[in-house]
Amino acid sequence: MLRGVDDTEGYRRPGRDRMGGSQIEAARHDLEAVLAEMRPKLHRYCARMTGSVFDGEDVVQETLAKAVEALGAGARPNNAEAWLMRIAHNAAIDFLRARARRDAPLVAGPADEVADLSPTAEERHLAAANLRAFLALPTVQRSCVILMDLLGYSQAELVGMLHMTLPAVKAALHRGRARLRDAAASLEQTPAPVLGAAERALYLRYVDRFNARDFDAIRDMLAEEVWLDMVARTRMKGPAELRDRYLKNYGQSDDWRFALGVVDGRPALVVHDPADPARRIAYFVELEWSGDRLTRIRDFRYARYVTDGAQAHILA
After folding, report:
1. In this structure, are strands 293-299 and 281-290 parallel, antiparallel, or unpaired?
2. Fewest CB atoms within 10 Å of the CB: 15, 37, 50, 171?
3. Would you kindly state where each structural domain of the chain is located, as residue ranges?
């Protein structure tokens, strides 16, 4: 049973009316269609809850897995968007707990502390800005500010999604906005992170070979158990499949150039279109290594919404 899903509006408890295989497949197909449309919105929420575009994507994928599991158990959401957002909220909370983040508990004040809780233009701008600033907020305040100021949900919808009283929602918004302003101002003074010499050399070797389209050399850097997540598109496993599909597809396109960077405090590849004179960052590629062998690639070429709010620095 999914925590906080069975008792939300628009959900029927699993029971005697469990769906058959064909019904589950049909419901899953419908859910995937909704998720494809909602994925940028879910990611905007999850990335700010976790403070990272990469962790946010992990939570989005966990959300899909839990939703499919619930469908198999008989869930019949009437409001798929609210249902998925609730699952995403629970998945983000689980992620934060697993990461052992300890936020101060929220003590809700009286509802009349704040006269008007409609977000100002400045508050909407702050909600769309630096992801890591949200980590300064307790999770309840964080969730309320993201859902209302960034994603445009109403106070009444927050009450239903988060199982809070209206006074608690109002207090969380008021205090969360104040904390977010302070946190954003503090982060503006934070210097860009620096990579160690060995790690930098490893990434630069990959970047240089990829930009030179020396895909045979890239193939030699792959571990035998390497796997690829082409986010929102497909997954591949093993050097042969990556060579025949992933590297071949990149070789047939010319709208990319890689650079070494840091994204939300992690080393990553930042990608821009050479035809863009402003060299705006189009998307990211995350790599994981075991020694000097590449074990995992997560490529956001087809999920470019991840750049929204990310703190990205080009290093080389």
Report:
1. antiparallel
2. 15
3. 21-98, 111-187, 197-314
Residue 245 CA to residue 227 CA, distance in Å, equals: 12
Q: Which amino acid is at 148?
A: M
Strand order in the sheet with 281-290: 234-237, 222-230, 293-299, 281-290, 266-272, 257-263, 312-314
Helices (H) and strands (E) in the chain, counts: 11, 7
Using left for φ > 0, alpha for ψ between -120 and 50, and beta otherwise, residue 2 falls in: beta
Decide: 146 and 158 in contact? Cβ < 8 Å: no
Residues paired with 220 in a beta bridge:
none
65 φ, ψ (degrees, to nearest 5): -60, -45
Higher pLDDT, 131 or 308: 308
- Residue 85 · residue 42 · CB < 8 Å: yes
What contacts 171, CB < 8 A, 6 or more positions away?
A: 106, 107, 108, 109, 110, 111, 113, 114
- CA dist., res. 242 & res. 235, Å (int): 10
Residue 90's pLDDT band, with cuts at 50, 70 and 90, is very high
